Amino acid sequence: MAEINITPLADVMLVLLVIFMVTTPLIMTDSFKVRLPRAVSADAEPGKGAVVAVSEAGHVTLNGRAVEMDGLREALKAAFGQGGDRTVIIRADRGVSHGVVVNVLDTARLAGAERLSIATEQERR
What is the pTM of this model? Predict the structure, then answer.
């Protein structure tokens, strides 16, 4: 009786699964495009710390992972609990209202942020 050996097929599938698991987080870091506001005095140094991005549509991510605005405080506390820098860099789209940015700043401060920074693009002269 002839039997089909599926062991090589299973091996290939597991290798593909591992490849997709490793590469997906690298692809998904910029889940939406943020048009930063421009400033003449923009700092060229990217800085280190937790990066909170806010899209014009109101979507919020923390270090590339989507979070709800209500859960941002707990997510920042968890990020600070990992022993990292307590700096928060806010990458808000230039179309986001001032009130949303102030809400993110307040939430970050309440979560224990020691330094707050707003990311901008260098304005071309």
Answer: 0.66
